[in-house]
Each structure stands twice: as structure tokens, then as C-alpha cells.
Design brief:
This protein is an alpha/beta fold. It is built from 14 helices and 20 strands. It binds pyridoxal-5'-phosphate (PLP) and lysine. This is Diaminopimelate decarboxylase.
């Protein structure tokens, strides 16, 4: 019998939706009904751990907030594309915002209704357009006149009609880190608001295109409703002009972007607050328009539902008192700190450690000076400790890479006291070799690869033996 999470018995009203919560008094950190130490024991590190109940409750919060208003919540697959997560959302009726053929295929494979898939992105390739047409998706969010002409040509070739919405660039400042703003006038995304009407007029002339909506997405990690309200005004202005020209739309897509709290006390934009503000504003500025409302949240559904579990290899000291905890995760597993200087709360997992006032930086093994997951944190930690980086469910695994030939981290989805591995097995360096050259090739060059495979297997067997010996003592 495993120990169970005592916090569960204490909050029966919403027992599992809290996902991770704070550690229990003995220092154990739980994901729903499973301790993170147990996950590390069973699956090793680095591992992303997700709470299914929290993902479901975040999706439900969006869905519920629309009430009786016709709507579709299209989860932005780019935030976290694990099939197990897409399946969870598809089974609850979610739609999907996709940005590549790969994401469309994954959504379909997860059981999504193609009529609930929208396809955004500034560079849709011809094969991706063909795939979307064969799948029968709900809508292409068109980002340029060049793309419109390309879609018309592909649809004509395939004898289909492509449903389209124009993604408007409203030139609205979302007041976020500039690298994740997408609706500023100079940005590569969307169609300049002055070019939108001519584009719709052109679309109306095209025989293989059907105008179904209008869309927008102004950025990510947005913390207030104010930029969204400016965006709705720009969209409403366009919808009214289209209506006057006899172009009547079926839907309006507000995009995603709601922010979450990465640090305690940081401002967030809860789903209910965002949806109420959008619906109220859209009704006010577009009275009488019978539009279905679409929204494309990514981060706000999965970020807080995930942590990255990692282990400290050892501590290292540098000049002037600089201290590092070198961990077995890095910018290859969690890129956000290196890419945006983003903050993730990092905590020690396990029984309470001694107090400390000494700052320590959590650093990965990758050969980049920016490979620091957290700078100068106050964490009492030592060799072999388990640590978590919180709020890592969004743009964590989905932006992970094999940089420095590091295998991708593992992922598990926790539901109550069950743990579902999201990959068939953890990636190994042999998988990286196999992706480029066969390990079974018997040619002269193949011998070197065979030696590498044997070397890896010998080491893996030794590591297993050491682990088992340690567990026995
Ligand atoms: C078109 C589009 N929709 C939705 C999203 C999801 O954004 P977020 O994860 O901030 O909700 C993005 C990413 O920023 C996007 O580019
Ligand atoms: N990947 C970014 C956000 C960009 C969203 C995609 N347009 C992040 O981690 O915050």
C-alpha cells in the first residue's frame, strides 16, 4: 500500500482539482494522490508530472464560463502536445487550435472532432493545407493574402472548399514580455487591420474558399482584460463593415493568451473573468450578430497542472561565493528561463531540510551560460535531492529538445492515485542514433554503431545493478 495524500481527506469539496498544492507537513509534495518521490522512484528523472484533474478543471472553467452562449474552447496544442492530454481534452468535447500538420494529426489521433480543429500559423505549407482539407477541419485562420491564394489553389486541386477566417493583426499592445506579443502592428502574425477588408473581398470571389469567421490572437501571458477589449472593438468594427457588404460570419475567435501566476502573488487572468469580459464586450459592440464564440487557451489550461521533477547531481562552488546545484534537467528540458528569462518556482521535494539564507543557482549540465533554471534562490538543498520546477505544464515539454544529445524527459499523467506514463518508454541516446542510422546495419560503418549500442547496454545494466543494490541497503 502506498501512502495517500492527507490533503485529499481534508478538502473533499474539490479534492483533486488542486493538482499539486503545498507540501504536507512531512515535506511530501503530492500530485493528486501520488507523491512525487514515488514518481521519481518509479520513472526516474527528469520527468514532467501532470495532474489530470487540474487540466480537466481548467478546461471546464472555460467551458462553463460561456454558459448558454454558443461557443467552442479550442485548446492550443502547442502549449503541451502530449497525446494523453489531448485525449483527456478531446473526450470532454474540446476543440483544438493547431499550428502545423503534426498538431492536426495529433489532435485527430487523440479523437478530436475535425470540425472542432482550427489551423493558425503564418507559413502553412502545401502538404499541411492538403492534410487539413482531407481532415475536414473547421477553419483555416488565414494570416496573409499569399496564404489565401495558396489555399484556394490547393482546395481547387483537391476539389474541396476551404473554410476560412482572417486572423486580424489589431495593433494592440498586450503589455507582455515583447518576445511573446503577437498583435503589434509590426509583428509577423495576422493581417494588418487596413488590409483585412480587401482580403475578405478577395476571398468572396474565390470558388474554393468559404468565409466562416474572423480571428485574432494578441499574445501570451496576458494579465488583464483591457487589451482583449481593445481587440474586440477592432474586430467588431470589421465585422460590422463586412455585414454591410453582405459578408455574414458564423464565428469570432478571440485567440488565447490568458496569463497564469509563475510567482506567488503574480497577477493572473482567470478563465471566468476573461470569458465574461469577452462575451459582454462582444454583445455590447455587436448587438444582434448571431456568432459562435471561439477561444484558444493553451498556457492557462496546462501550465499550473505540471511540474518538472529533477534530481540534484551535486553542489558546486565558484568565485565570490557563487553556489550552484547542478541538476539532471536543463534548458533542453525546460527552455523558458534561458529563452525569456522566465521564472519558475523551484522547490525541494521531501522531508524538510535545514533552513538556509545562502542563495544557490539551479543549473543544468548543458554547455550554455544561460542554462540556469533559477538564479540565486533560497533553497536548502544537497546532493541527490529531488527538486521541482513548478508551473511547467505549458511550453515545457513542447519546447524541449535533444540539444547536447540529451534524451527528452519522460512525462506522466496522474489521476487520483493512478499514474499513466505518457510515453511508451524513456528516450535513450540510442534512439537519437537510431533516428539517423540503423543500429542493426551490418556494414563496416555499422560495426561502430554496434559497439556504441553494446557500450550503452553494458552501462545501463551496471546502472540498474547499482540502483538495485542501493535499494536493498
Ligand atoms: C494562434 C494562437 N492561439 C493560441 C495560443 C495560445 O496562447 P496561450 O498559451 O498564451 O493561451 C497561441 C500562442 O501564443 C497562438 O499563437
Ligand atoms: N512559448 C512561450 C509562449 C509563446 C506562445 C506561442 N505563441 C512561453 O513559453 O511562454
Amino acid at each position: 500500500m502506498h501512502a495517500s495524500n492527507p490533503a485529499r481527506e481534508h478538502s473533499e469539496s474539490e479534492p483533486l482539482a488542486q493538482g499539486f498544492g503545498r507540501p504536507t507537513p512531512d515535506g511530501t509534495l503530492w500530485c493528486e494522490g501520488v507523491s512525487l518521490e514515488e514518481i521519481a522512484r518509479r520513472f526516474g528523472t527528469p520527468t514532467y508530472v501532470y495532474s489530470k484533474a487540474m487540466i480537466e478543471s481548467r478546461f471546464a472553467a472555460y467551458d462553463r464560463a460561456f454558459g448558454e452562449t454558443p461557443h467552442l474552447v479550442c485548446y492550443a496544442v502547442k502549449a503541451n502536445a502530449a497525446l494523453g492530454i489531448l485525449e483527456t481534452l478531446a473526450s470532454r468535447g474540446a476543440g483544438f487550435d493547431t499550428v502545423s500538420g503534426g498538431e492536426i494529426l495529433k489532435a485527430v489521433a487523440a479523437g478530436a472532432d475535425p470540425k472542432k480543429i482550427v489551423f493558425s500559423g503564418v507559413g502553412k505549407s502545401r502538404p499541411e493545407i492538403a492534410l487539413a482539407l482531407f481532415a475536414g477541419i473547421r477553419c483555416f485562420n488565414i494570416e496573409s493574402i499569399e496564404e489565401l491564394e495558396r489555399i484556394e489553389a490547393e482546395a481547387a486541386r483537391l476539389g474541396r472548399r476551404a473554410p476560412i477566417a482572417v486572423r486580424v493583426n489589431p495593433d494592440v499592445d498586450p503589455h507582455v514580455e515583447e518576445r511573446i506579443a503577437t498583435g503589434l502592428g509590426t509583428s509577423k502574425f495576422g493581417v494588418d487591420r487596413d488590409d483585412v477588408l480587401p482580403l475578405y473581398r478577395r476571398a468572396r470571389e474565390l470558388p474554393h474558399v468559404e468565409i466562416v469567421g474572423i480571428s485574432c490572437h494578441i499574445g501570451s501571458q496576458i494579465q488583464s482584460t483591457e487589451p482583449y477589449l481593445c481587440m474586440v472593438e477592432v474586430l467588431a468594427d470589421i465585422v460590422r463593415q463586412l455585414h454591410a457588404e453582405g459578408i455574414v460570419l458564423k464565428h469570432i475567435d478571440f485567440g488565447g493568451g490568458a496569463g497564469v501566476a509563475y510567482r506567488e502573488g503574480e497577477k493572473t487572468l482567470p478563465p471566468g473573468e476573461l470569458v465574461s469580459a469577452l462575451v459582454e464586450k462582444a454583445r455590447e459592440v455587436l448587438p444582434g450578430e448571431a456568432l459562435t464564440y471561439l477561444i484558444e487557451p493553451g498556457r492557462s489550461i496546462v501550465a499550473e497542472a505540471g511540474v518538472l521533477l529533477m534530481r540534484v547531481e551535486f553542489l558546486k562552488h565558484a568565485r565570490a561565493g557563487a553556489r550552484y546545484a547542478i541538476v539532471d534537467a536543463s534548458m533542453s528540458e525546460l527552455l523558458r528561463p534561458a529563452l525569456y528569462g522566465a521564472w519558475h518556482e523551484i522547490e525541494r521535494v521531501g522531508s524538510a531540510a535545514a533552513q538556509t539564507e545562502l542563495p544557490i543557482s539551479i543549473a543544468g549540465p548543458v554547455c550554455e551560460s544561460t542554462d540556469i533554471l533559477g538564479r540565486n534562490r533560497i533553497i536548502a538543498t544537497f546532493d541527490n535531492d529531488l527538486l521541482v520546477a513548478r508551473t511547467a505544464g505549458a511550453y515545457g515539454m513542447s519546447m524541449a529538445s535533444n540539444y547536447n544529445s540529451r534524451p527528452l524527459p519522460f512525462e506522466v499523467l496522474v489521476s487520483g492515485d493512478r499514474v499513466e506514463p505518457l510515453q511508451k518508454r524513456r528516450q535513450t541516446p540510442l534512439d537519437l542514433i537510431e533516428a539517423q542510422r540503423s543500429l542493426l546495419d551490418k556494414s563496416a560503418a555499422g560495426e561502430a554503431r554496434e559497439r556504441a549500442a553494446a557500450l550503452y547496454e553494458e552501462t545501463a545494466a551496471f546502472v540498474r545493478f547499482m540502483k538495485e543494490s542501493l535499494e536493498r541497503t
